[in-house]
Write a structure and sequence with these properties.
This protein has 19 helices and three strands. It is mainly alpha-helical. Among the domains are: 85 residues, no CATH class; 40 residues; 83 residues. A hairpin with a 4-residue loop joins strand 1 and strand 2. Helix 7 runs antiparallel to helix 8. The longest helix is centred in the first third of the chain and has 33 residues. The relative contact order is 0.04. Keywords: Signal, TPR repeat.
């Protein structure tokens, strides 16, 4: 009996609430016709929590009135982004209710409104993009995607914009979704052979390319499609790198490299990740492949040396500095970096020598071997610095290094020859 009375009591409470809700919807409809848009939202908001229990007819009218008022407010530049977002939700709810109830009074109008909202969002996002307002553009692209999830281009645009805005968490969410839906983003690329540059040139539109064909500066026009998959995996990897998730980054880079093995920037990131994790063998293997593909890029190889030095892989640093010099014997910066590395090495050997100052034969032998090694290193340093002076007589790094050697009491008979430039 108690449960029956409870149910009756709840029903008696619900009846006036339902009646009040109907009145609120009617009042909101009158205000909408009168153009009092903010008043419409003020009337509907207090009864929104009850709408799920309302009749289909009331729910349809509620969502239609709310969505229409929000769109009109946005069109008046009143909280545009917020009102459009809420309008999208209202119209989606409207479409869903009409589908469930098999009533299609406002569905076509709601779909048309959603289409216009999406079009407006994309146009506004592109305007923001043009002035590098990446935060707003990314939000709008993503809202446009939520309206029409078949238009995955807007999800890609959102990902790129979030990345540009340094909103890495949101960018990663979009990129991961693109990966999960197997987005390829195949875009047409227009190509023609340039007579002056003697190579293919790429154009953003077919019109731009055809103008050059008509001008006679290009010939052999063709069209290709380029996939965005490799770029997506690369972006995921770079976000993981920046966030410190090395294992996830390595996995993503490996996937990206499978899609685009020629991407040098990806190869560099992958190699440096293995360097940071102290997997020197794998790092050296990756670098050997990169060097093979770039046999004349001494600067690239010297940068590997610098990265190795920063990660305290001194053997690798020395090897890559020497490799850079081998590729370009007049690369002064490589000689300087190698010399700085050797100076550092000689100082460490000097510290080791202090550990063998005893009178035992083993101490004397160790001291003598270290001394010989240090003297050879110092000779190599001055030989390298002499080479720098011959290439670039006013190189300031030479003076800085010799000063640091003076401070560390590193002496050599070659110093006079260096000073005289012989």
């Amino acid at each position: 009996m108690k449960s029956i009375f409870k149910s009756l009591f709840s029903l008696l409470l619900f009846i006036p609430l339902t009646h009040a809700q109907k009145n609120q919807i009617k009042s909101a409809q009158k205000e909408l016709k009168a153009g009092n848009l903010e008043q419409v939202i003020a009337i509907l908001s207090p009864v929104e929590y009850l709408i799920s229990n309302a009749s289909d007819e009331d729910r349809i009218h509620f969502y239609y009135i709310k969505g229409t008022a929000l769109v009109d407010l946005a069109n008046q530049n009143i909280n545009t982004s917020k009102n459009l977002s809420q309008a999208v939700l209202a119209f989606n709810d409207l479409i869903e209710v009409e589908k469930e109830s098999n009533q299609y009074k406002y569905t076509s109008e709601a779909i048309e409104s959603l289409h216009k909202i999406k079009e407006g969002l994309v146009n506004s996002a592109n305007e923001d993009l043009a002035v590098e307002n990446f935060t707003d553009s990314s939000d709008k692209f993503y809202q446009a995607y939520l309206i029409d999830k078949k238009d995955t281009l807007q999800l890609y645009n959102a990902a790129v914009s979030y990345r540009s805005a340094n909103e890495n968490d949101l960018a990663l969410k979009c990129y991961e979704e693109l990966k999960n839906i197997n987005y390829s983003g195949n875009i047409a690329v227009y190509i023609a052979y340039s007579k002056s540059k003697l190579k293919d040139e790429y154009f953003g539109t077919i019109k731009e390319r055809n103008v050059q064909i008509q001008n006679g500066t290009h010939f052999r026009p063709r069209q290709e499609f380029q996939s965005k998959k490799a770029e997506i995996y690369k972006s995921i990897a770079m976000i993981y790198v920046q966030s410190g998730y090395k294992e996830k980054a390595m996995k993503a880079i490996s996937q990206a490299r499978n899609l685009d093995s020629q991407d040098l920037s990806l190869a560099l990131v992958e190699a440096n990740l293995y360097l940071e994790t102290k997997d020197y063998d794998y790092f050296d293997n990756l670098v050997s492949v990169i060097i093979e593909a770039n046999p004349n890029n001494a600067e690239l190889v010297a940068n590997f040396g610098l990265n190795c030095q920063n990660e305290q892989y001194y053997e690798g640093a020395e090897y890559y500095y020497k490799k850079a010099i081998e590729m370009n014997p007049k690369y002064a910066e490589a000689y300087v970096n190698l010399s700085a590395l050797l100076v550092e090495k000689s100082i460490k050997i000097g510290n080791q020598m202090n550990e063998y100052l005893g009178s035992s034969n083993s101490d004397k032998k160790a001291f003598s071997e270290l001394k010989t090694e240090k003297e050879q290193i110092i000779k190599d340093v001055f030989k390298n610095l002499q080479k720098v002076v011959s290439i670039d007589p006013f190189n300031s790094s030479v003076k800085q290094l010799t000063n640091s050697m003076n401070t560390a009491n590193i002496n050599n008979s070659s110093r006079g020859a260096l000073a005289s430039g012989e």
